[in-house]
Design a protein that fits this description.
- The protein has 540 residues and is of the alpha+beta class.
- It has a domain of 107 residues: Elongation Factor Tu (Ef-tu), domain 3 (Beta Barrel).
- Helix content is 17%, strand content 29%.
- Strands 1, 7, 26, 27, 28 and 31 form a 6-stranded mixed β-sheet that branches. Strands 9-10-15-14-11-16 form a 6-stranded antiparallel barrel.
- Strand 29 and strand 30 form a beta hairpin.
- Helix 1 packs across helix 3.
- The longest helix is centred in the first third of the chain and has 32 residues.
Length: 540
């Protein structure tokens, strides 16, 4: 009992610090990991209950495009004359009686728009972290303050931030795949290792300590395929234990042989992102830009490429509230495959002009360009060494068209990346993201708070970082579950059919939100030739 009192006392002492460190680190790290997050805003507008019971929430958006009423030429009916109708009946030389011959069109002949609705289900991520009595006792010692608990909390917050940033760029089109496996090399006999090169070169999607699953790939899709790290229906734990960004190399580790069947072209996803017991495995995540950028395909039917959020069969979209961009092309995005060509300024101008020429009447714009590192380097290579005179007679400069520089951004000016690009009076900000897959450029509308995070109301008793807005609405739930006001729960062990309290406690929490833009349409360009170098092993 004394141990329990000591444990509780220590947790109560450190509780506020623990909560503050976790949530504050999330708040700082999200924009630090990827600058696009800095433009996101939290909103609760448009969130409502799915049914009368309120067991679930979803984001609802109502659209109504096109023209209404009737507006036509008056000549066919008899144009209004300056002083009335053109016909009259005269009474002598000075008087006339007006005759009404003009008529207005029948208002019932005009069109009315049928509103349509888009529904987006909320997503929940669950988390937990454990602390032992020994850890907290050591942290309380002057010699160890800030050396044990703080790094653990920082790693926990980075775990949350990393997962959210990955969700922004991965796509439900391929089961939220982080990357494919290439150049694999297995080693070890307990622990077992698998070293590989991410096929999309997005090596920053992996961090040490991150848990993943490996799935068999089929025609570029992980959906419905078997999990490699599984034995007898039981998932085998696979963790990232090594990331070399210089050489684009990632290594996985497992205490059991989870890699013997792995082949090149297999794919990696977040651990336990699969749901459903059927052979048609489904994957889920918080929606990202690829969930909304849909260019349509030749079939015109419900498909990943036609339907915002993809098909209802994968659990992402709501069947009765889907938007097929082939049926409602005002939401269609511009897709272009450059087929292994460098991105030039002229090509970029062509794409942007095409988008705005097509979308201006809908009030849709692009203001942000995000691409992989090699795309912008290739773009710059087409300009370096050229001396072009502008209309003032001065030499043009690359000062505002590199992958660095631009204007400081963020709450504390912590971002100094991006470049400015101007065309036809419109200004674009370009960013380099190491989370973007190889040879890809995204054109998005980020201004005006277009992309929003929707967050349902907090449950009474939960605890969250109260200095907002927080980029990640993470909450601890132990207080709500127990009604005790504390965010720690004991961890039990079972022996001889009895439960015993251990020296460890846990802090469960969850993050419930969804990302959704007001304007879906944007631009995605693939097949861009990159200009990128990786390091190699030292030989001299």
């Amino acid at each position: 009992m004394a141990a329990l009192i000591t444990s509780g006392s220590l947790f109560n002492t450190h509780e506020k610090r623990i909560e503050d460190v976790i949530n504050k680190n999330i708040d700082i790290m999200l924009p630090g990991v990827d600058p696009i997050w800095e433009n996101m805003v939290t909103s609760s507008m448009g969130v409502g209950p799915v049914d009368a019971l309120g067991r679930e929430y979803k984001v609802l958006k109502v659209f109504m495009g096109g023209l209404t009423g009737i507006f036509e030429q008056g000549r066919s009916r008899n144009d209004f004359a300056l002083f009335g109708d053109s016909t009259d009946e005269g009474f002598g030389q000075r008087l006339f009686q007006q005759q009404v011959t003009q008529s207005f069109p029948d208002p019932l002949d005009g069109m009315n728009q049928q509103p349509y609705r888009f529904g987006l289900p909320m997503r929940t991520m669950v988390a937990n972290i454990a602390f032992t009595l020994g850890e907290l006792q050591a942290e309380a010692s002057p010699a160890f303050i800030g050396q044990i608990v703080a790094p653990k909390l920082e790693g926990f917050s980075r775990n949350i931030a990393q997962t959210l940033c990955n969700s922004w760029y991965t796509s439900q089109n391929d089961g939220y795949v982080l990357s494919s496996i290439t150049s694999k090399s297995a080693s070890g006999s307990g622990p077992y290792f698998l070293e590989f090169t991410p096929g999309n070169k997005a090596v920053d999607r992996f961090m040490v300590g991150m848990q993943v699953d490996i799935y068999v790939d089929s025609s570029g899709s992980a959906i419905g395929q078997a999990r490699r790290n599984e034995s007898g229906g039981v998932r085998q734990v696979v963790v990232v234990d090594f990331v070399d960004e210089i050489t684009n190399t990632v290594r996985l580790v497992s205490n059991v042989d989870a890699f013997s069947a792995v082949v090149d072209t297999d794919v990696i996803v977040h651990a336990n992102s699969h749901y459903g017991a059927s052979s048609a495995a489904k994957f889920t995540n918080i929606a990202g830009i690829n969930s909304f950028l849909k260019g349509g395909d030749a079939s015109g039917t419900e498909s990943f490429f036609n339907t915002i959020l993809g098909t209802s069969s994968n659990g992402e979209s709501i069947t009765s509230e889907q938007i097929n961009v082939n049926e409602k092309p005002e939401h269609k995005s511009l897709f272009k495959n450059l087929n292994s060509s460098l991105l030039t300024e002229h090509t970029l101008r062509q794409l942007l002009r095409r988008f705005h020429a097509a979308k201006a009447k809908h009030g849709q714009t692009i203001d942000t360009l995000v691409a992989s590192d090699g795309v912008w380097l290739g773009y710059e290579s087409t300009k370096i060494g050229r001396e072009v005179l502008d209309r003032t007679g001065r030499l043009s400069s690359l000062a505002t068209q590199g992958s660095e520089g631009g204007s400081p951004g963020g709450a504390n000016d912590q971002f100094n990346s991006g470049f400015n690009f101007t065309m036809d009076g419109k200004s674009y900000t370009g960013y380099t993201s190491t989370y973007v897959e190889e040879g890809t450029l995204y054109g998005l509308k980020m201004g005006g708070g277009n992309y929003k995070k929707y967050v349902p109301p907090s449950i009474s008793g939960t605890s969250a970082f109260d200095q907002g807005p927080a980029f990640a609405p993470f909450e601890f739930v132990a207080g709500a579950l127990t009604g005790t006001g504390t965010n720690q729960l004991p961890i039990y062990t079972n022996a001889g059919g009895k439960n015993f309290v251990t020296e460890a406690s846990q802090m469960p929490g969850y993050l419930r939100m969804q990302v959704c833009p007001d304007q879906f349409a944007g631009m995605k360009v693939v097949g861009i030739t990159e200009d990128r170098l990786y390091g190699e092993a030292q030989t001299v």
